[in-house]
Amino acid sequence: MIDVDCIWKKICEENDPQAFSDFFDHFYPxxxxxxxxxxxxxxxxxxxxxxxxxxxxxxxxRKKHIDRVNAYLFQSVKNKSLNWLRDRKKNENFDxxxxxxxxxxxxxxxxxxxxxxLEVFQLLEDCISxxxxxRQMVYRLLREDGLFLDEVAELLNLSKRTVEKxxxxxxxxxxxxxxxxxxxxxHHPKIRKLFPRSFVFFFL
Length: 204
Fold this sequence. Notes:
The protein is mostly helical. The chain has 2 domains: about 5-90, RNA polymerase sigma factor, region 2, helix turn helix motif (Rna Polymerase Sigma Factor, Chain: A); about 110-204, Winged helix-like DNA-binding domain superfamily/Winged helix DNA-binding domain (Arc Repressor Mutant, subunit A, Orthogonal Bundle), CATH 1.10.10. It has 11 helices and no strands. It has helices at about 5-15, 15-40, 40-60, 60-65, 70-90, 105-110, 120-130, 135-145, 150-155, 160-185, 190-195. α2 (about 15-40) crosses α5 (about 70-90), α3 (about 40-60) packs across α5 (about 70-90) and α7 packs antiparallel against α10. The radius of gyration is 18 Å and the shape is globular.
């Protein structure tokens, strides 16, 4: 897993080309999946995310004043996605949208896992994708994308308590679905990272 703060520092202070590439490769799939929750069309999500990343990286003054680039990017993508939807509805009359293609982020990229661990993370990804949309978004933003509780609450226009409840319910559902597997894997370090400490005793 890359060090986002380190890469962001290299981009802002050194204009490092490799840092730009690493930054794009790390954030694009995450932001694409997030935008897709709003726009529902892959080509729309691609347009939104590309614009947000490009506009951020080219603006030297803006870059200097961003402390939490994760939160900034997700908020920007949300705003851009809503604007994209507004403009599309304004300019076109349509009854249905094209079918959304499956878009699965490679687990090994997100969590830096070993090949032998792919089974559990593919299983986990399948279970996460079955969660209700908002619950899934809360779980991914907190557990996979590293946003803080208050950042997720502001991003999704929810109270902190509601965000906490969504996370609690998401983890509980995932635990239930994965219980038979996790009973054999509960001390696996990457499994412990994904599930809150409060759920450790669920498997005992």
